[in-house]
Amino acid sequence: MSDDAPLIAVEKLTLKPSKDTRASLEDFSLAVLAGQTVILLGEADSGKFALLKLLANVRERGEKLSGTIRFGIGESYDLAREFTITPRTAYLTGPYAAALNAHATALSQFIRVVERKRKVSADNARAELSGALARLPGAPQLSVLDAPPGTIAPEALASGLFAAALAQSPQLLLADDPLTQLSPSHARAYAEVLLAEQKKRGFSMIYAAQNVESAKLLNSNVVILKNGRIVEQGSVARLATAPQQAYTQALFRVVAGRAKEAAAQMGRTSRGEALVRVRNVKLASQPKQSRDVLNFELRRGASLALVGERGSGRHGLVRALIGLDPVAKGHVVFDQVDIGILGEAMMARMRRRVAVVTGDDAALDDRMTIDDTVAEPLRANLHAPRDVLVRNRDAALKRVGLAALDGNMNVAALSTFDKRRLQVARAIVSAPSLAVIDEPLRGLDAFAQSVVIDLLRSLREQEGPAFVLITSDFGLARAFCEDAMVFKDGLVIERGPISAMLRAPKESHTKKLIDAVAAAPANGLSQASAQV
Predict the structure, then answer these.
(1) CA-to-CA distance for 196 and 54, rounded, in angstroms?
(2) Based on the domain organization, do 236 and 176 belong to the same domain?
(3) Which one of 153, 251, 433, 444 is least enclosed by Cβ atoms within 10 Å?
C-alpha cells in the first residue's frame, strides 16, 4: 500500500435506518490514513456511532446505504450492495458499555475474541492478552479477569478491554469512547498507552468521543458531526481557540470556557450559618488502623467538592453526612440536630431536605411516569394541594426542557440525557437544603454535558442549597465549588480552597489528579488553570 493511500476512505455515504425518515449519516466523506487518528465529536445521535457500527460490520435489517467505501488501492465497494471490511478491525468500548456476556467470565470472552481475530490457539491468544495487559499501567493479573464482568472493578475491566483490543493487532481500531468512562488519571494514562501502541504498531484509529476531554487527551484531528453531517474539522488546538461554527464553540465550552464565570458567580453565593457540622468523625470506611478524624463545617449556600478516584472514600463521607451509614466515632450535626440520635422516622424527614443528582440512571424508578417522578418529593415533603403540586411540577419540567414530553410516559422510555434532566427537575422541585451531585456528566455527550452544567448552576443560584459535588475531575470541581477535600485510600489527604490547590498542591496525589485534567492540545498550554 502506498504511504499516501488511505487505509479506508468513505465517500458520499448516506445511511438511513429502517422505519426512520432521517438519515444517521448523509453525504458523509472521510479518509483515514495508515497510522492516523480521527476523532468524531458530536451529540449522541450525530452519526458517529452509526459509522463505527458500519465499519464493524454491524448491520441492521432494512437499513439503506449508498455511497462508496475504498480500502487501500483498488478495493472499492458500492455501499448499496454487500461489502467486506478488509482491514483487521478491533472494537474498543468502556467498562460500562455492557458489551460482554454477563454470564461468562471476562477472561474467557477476551481470549475467544483474540483467538478468532488472530486465528491462533487459545493458549497463544491468552499469551497475547497477557502481554498486552502487561503494557498497561496498573493493570491486574489475568486471574482477576477470570470472573463475570459484573463482579470485576471497572478499572480492572477497562484494562482487560484495552488489552483485548491491542492483542488483536488491528489495522483499524474503532473506539467507542472508552476514556470517558475512566477517572481522569486513568484516562490520561490509557490515552498515552493507546498513542504509544499506535506509534509502535502503526494502526489507524477512529475514536467516537462523547466530550472534548477525550479529544484533548488524544490530541488529533477532530471531525465535528451534527445530524449526520460534518460541520467542521481541524486540530484540537484550532477548534478550541478559533472555531468557525457556533456548534463547535458550544461543544468546546462545556467546562473550561465557563470555569471563571461559574467560580465568580459561586463566589458571590451568600453563606449562612452552618448546615452540617462534622466533629471528630472517623468514618466506617476509613482504614481501621487510621487515627485520622474529620472536623469541618458546611454552611448554607456553600460548596464542597469531594475529589478522588473510584473507591477512594468519597461516598463514605456523603453517606455519613445524610445518615445512611453510622460513623465509627464522633458526631454529624445536620441543622443543629445530631443525626446519630435520630430514629428512622425523623431520619427520613431529614433526608427529604437532601436532593441527589447522580450519573447513575438507576437512581430513578423506570416504572414511574415522568410526572409522578417529579411530583413525588412534593407529595412526601409538603403534602401540597393538587393545584400547587401540578404548578410546581410543571415549572420544574419546563426549567429542564422536558415540558413538551408526555407526563404519563414511563421513565424507562427516556434517553440518558432526559433521565439526567429529570433528576435535576426532581431536585429543583424539592427546594433542598443540601444538594449532593455525584459525577453528573457520566455517559453524556458534549452538548448534553453543557446543558446539564447550566441546569445545575441554575439549581445552585435559584434554590441556593449547600452543594456537595462528588467527582474525580478537578475541572468540574473548579466550575462548581470553592473548597475541596481530596481522597485517597479512604482518607482525606488534602483540603482547602480549590484555587490554592491548583496553584500549589501539597500532595503528589492531588497533583496527579490536577495533571489528569491539564492535558492540553498542542498550543503550548499545560497548566491546570488553562483547562479549568
Answers:
(1) 27
(2) yes
(3) 153
Indicate the residue among 211, 227, 257 that finishes a domain. Answer: 257
Spatial distance between the Cα atoms of 251 and 223, rounded to a whole number of angstroms:
12
DSSP string, 88-112: -EEEE--TTS--S-TTS-HHHHHHH
The residues near 30 (Cβ < 8 Å, ≥ 6 apart) are 9, 10, 38, 51, 223, 230
Which strands form 75-78's sheet, in the order they lie side by side? 25-33, 6-16, 64-71, 75-78
Q: State the cell numbers at 112.
A: 475467544
On whether both 33 and 89 belong to a single domain, the answer is yes
Is 277 found in the same domain as 240?
no
Instruction: Give per-residue pLDDT as tens, 229-247.
Output: 999 999 888 888 888 888 8
Please indicate, yes or no, if residue 291 is contained in any of the structural domains. yes
Three-state secondary structure string covering 147-161: CCHHHCCHHHHHHHH
| Statement to judge: residues 239 and 274 lie in one domain | no
| Strand, helix or coil for residue 40 | strand
Cell of 481: 465549588
**CA atoms of 195 and 383, how far apart (whole Å):** 57
91-139 pLDDT per residue, tens: 998 877 778 888 899 999 999 999 999 999 999 999 999 999 988 887 8
